[in-house]
């Protein structure tokens, strides 16, 4: 695996590959890699000749400074995992390399309602930061495909919109959420859970699944309340939001027939860790 820390070195390498008619799939990450990330690498391997991944903890998408400081960093282990899973190129830049003119953004994308709801309503400026870094990374890597996880469902909707707003030639591919055996969605933040919190955490996914079980047997409102009650019953979790939304607009639905498929999404505080998850139903 080639590892590049400088934009120009990476670009020289990728230009040679493109000249040799190699297609490129790109999976951006913030490191602290787990099998969820590795599933993106495997997807890249299947769809393209060359798999590029990046590790960059993007400061502009953290609304909470202590979350940024506490974000786990395990680059040596990450590198080994990427090699083992057949990643061809790792881009691991410093902040200055991504933002040579500073972290202030010149672009103000109009995502309509997509960035106003769910995570957007709870994390001020988060998606502006995500759009800023993904746009910059795409400008550098120019991949045929960007591969992202369903785990961050709203993020995939935002990036799909970004690609259309910027007339990008890159296509987005969304890959399913990888879970621990007990259902907890894999996340870099899971390592920060204390033992008792880790035992509670699978309740999040179980509560989303309870909505699937209730699909069309009770009202949307009742199904939502059921899931909320399930999570709150633990006593240790605080819900930021739990919503049933339209898969494209992300607007809350009130009737099962408002959409053919529905995304049930939630964000939960467990101790000082904030976890998100979602499922698509039916
Ligand atoms: P992150 O490093 O958390 O910014 O995530 C980098 C990419 O990995 C994003 O596209 C995430 O959606 C994806 N990802 C994170 N966790 C999972 C998971 N459990 N299953 C699938 N994809 C994931």
* Total number of distinct structural domains: 2
**Do you know the CATH topology of the largest domain?**
Rossmann fold
Named at the architecture level, the CATH assignment of the largest domain is 3-Layer(aba) Sandwich
- What amount of the residues lies in strands? 15-25%
State the order of secondary-structure elements, H for helix, E for strand. Answer: EHEHEHHEHHHEHEHHHEEE
Helix tally? 11
Under CATH, the homologous superfamily of the largest domain reads HUPs
Query: Structural class from helices and strands?
Result: alpha/beta
User: What ranges have pLDDT less than 50 throughout 5 or more consecutive residues?
Assistant: none
Average of pLDDT: 97
Give the N-to-C terminal Cα separation.
40 Å
Q: Which CATH class of the largest domain applies here? A: Alpha Beta
The general outline is globular
Number of strands: 9
Ligand list? adenosine monophosphate
DSSP helix fraction: 25-40%
C-alpha Rg, in Å?
19 Å
Strand order of the largest sheet: 1-4-3-2-5-6
Overview of this structure, please?
This protein is an alpha/beta fold. The chain has eleven helices and nine strands. It has helices at residues 7-19, 35-47, 65-70, 75-84, 95-98, 119-122, 126-141, 153-165, 195-200, 202-214, 220-232, and strands at 2-4, 24-29, 50-55, 89-91, 145-149, 171-175, 237-245, 262-270, 273-281. The chain is globular and about 60 Å long. It starts with a strand and ends with a strand. The mean pLDDT is 97. The chain binds adenosine monophosphate.
Write a brief structural summary.
This protein is α/β, with parallel strands linked by helices. Helices cover 39% and strands 20% of the residues.
